[in-house]
Amino acid sequence: MDHAPAAKEHIANATLGQAAGYAVVLGLGGAFAIGMIATTFILKRYNRELQTSEMFNTAGRTVKSGLVAAAVVSSWTWAATLLQSTGVCYRYGVSGPFWYASGATVQIILFATLAIELKRRAPNAHTYLEVIKARYGTVAHLVFMVFGVITNILVSLMLIVGGSATLNALTGMHTIAAIYLLPLGVIAYTMVGGLKATILTDWAHTFILLLIIIIFALTAYASHDLLGSPSAVYDLLVAAATRHPVDGNKDGSFLTMQSREGAIFFVINIVGNFGTVFLDNGYYNKAIAASPVHALPGYIIGGICWFAIPWLTATTMGLAGLALENNPRFPTYPDRMLDSDVSAGLVLPYAAVALLGRGGAMATLLIVFMAVTSAFSSQLIAVSTICTYDLYRAYFNPEASGKRLIYTSHCVVMGYGLFISTFSVGLWYAGISMGYLYVMMGVIISSAVLPATLALLWSGQNKWAAAGAPVLGLATSLTAWLVTSKKQCGELTVKCTGSNIPMLAGNVAALLSPIVFIAVLTAIFGIDKYDWKSMLEIRRGDDHDLAQEAGVDLEEVNGGHEETQAEFEAEQAKLLKAGKISRWTTVVLALAFLILWPMPMYGSGYIFSKPFFTGWVMIGIIWIFGSFIGVGLFPVYESRATLSRTFKYIFKDLTGKSHIKTIHAQEAAVAGTPGDQTPPEKAGIKEEVRSS
Prior knowledge:
The structure is a single chain. By secondary structure, the chain is mostly helical. It has 29 helices and no strands. The chain has helices at residues 4-13, 18-46, 53-58, 65-76, 79-92, 95-121, 128-136, 138-171, 175-223, 230-243, 260-278, 281-289, 295-324, 339-343, 347-356, 358-396, 402-430, 434-445, 449-457, 463-489, 494-497, 500-525, 533-536, 544-550, 565-596, 598-604, 610-638, 640-655, 660-671. α2 (18-46) crosses α16 (358-396). The protein starts with a helix and ends in a 21-residue tail after the last helix.
């Protein structure tokens, strides 16, 4: 596929110059890398954090709910979250943003239950694949490892392919240069700081992202000269539907939830996103990193706050694109956008340019960069933990030291970053877009969702059902997808296989066919009677060599404390209570997002009135401010004591009023414990975590 003409056209018409693209990718990326490396040094010097294998891969298992929520939001905010949601709004109108947001929020909320069960059943696990191996053995472990790594690869490809396409469209920066340069800064700070650096960067990126979304919304609905109010946008959408009505929407309107193609996308979206949450080790990493009492609120807050990001972003920028595309300010005027450009995720940057000119282009560049880099950092850690603990330690070096485990993690981070960039170049030459990958991922991975979930929730699933159902489900989904494509189009092309009906068939077959296979294999081989004990035998990494080298007691290092029986029992009691709460909470919220809110409007075919549309927009704006409080400000408030103490230590150290060793000695004296004993705050469940 010849990309040269398109590339030249983008360079000629780019709102920002190539210098802006390189400045953001290298300058801002480098600044974040330096900032996170400096933060890691500060945590080590003033909070006595040692970069052990446990700290690198689990953040010491002490992260509070605010940072967990911010990390969940950041990990789930891909380039596709912003670009694809805006594209479906451009195609289907107001239903698109809601179908995208609700179809991807329920997985995070439902995952809260799985996160609690993981921490309760396997408190020392580093990945969910360790749980599979402990319960089912090698065969099932290898099967799920393949599905898990494929999930991470697909997500990573979507991030880099979507981000590089946007960089090219806005700045004219060569796509291949963007593909290789985007991951550089991420790799640097991930290697130095591990999961803790990833989570802190997640918060910083989410903070900036939410501010820019708020600016977009207030500009479009409050201050823009052509738009400036929901009423003005409403009138322009009515006119747009008159010029080009939407096939399958009620009366061709952009202002209705009753959209045939939108509903099909909704189903595809739900199925695919179950796979990319329940099989992505990155989300289990966040659950493992969370302090036991903070896992449930972290995931619930994160899911609710995340909903507003695609919903309001697309409701603002997708509708702004529809409203302004008949205006000379729109980049494609007087033509509509090509379907290939919509699939590539270019509605958001084009609408931003029409709305705010160069400022809009720069804001889009920033939010896409934030989304790509923060989510890609999560993927790096997810893959490194799998390769380190499920491959290297499980099959090659079971007695690996902490130093060796960290070295392996570093090698994987570098190697995986290079692999994804090279793979992305191949997809670019093949003409495979982010949109195609997004709707196709469920076909490939979702057959493993149900078996993986039952591994933690049902003692009766036997090893044959666990290992066999994903493979049989994949064969079924691929058959359904390709046969439907062939029957509908008569040929297998990228355009045909990426259309809604074949993708719907493949995605639904992937998620639902394992129900049959699990039932059949359970009937054949019998119901298992698993006692959950082998999961408790999963070992943490042995970091005594690193602690000895640093001259510290491992008991005083985050992630190094050996839990007593009393602590374990208290933690289990709290997790059991949280598990009961999570089941009811997640079911109620899922029903609200999937049925109680949207379905009455879909079934009635209601076309929004102007007052209703105004209220719809106002709810979105209020919600995004709530999200900003929940994952932008709350983590700072929650960690105010730690932040205050750290800044005080830095001030004393820099002004020479007290040496850091003296500070730590005074702190130990106040605690009343010698350096070789566990401080009293270790006893029981910790309500305040020093490292967060």
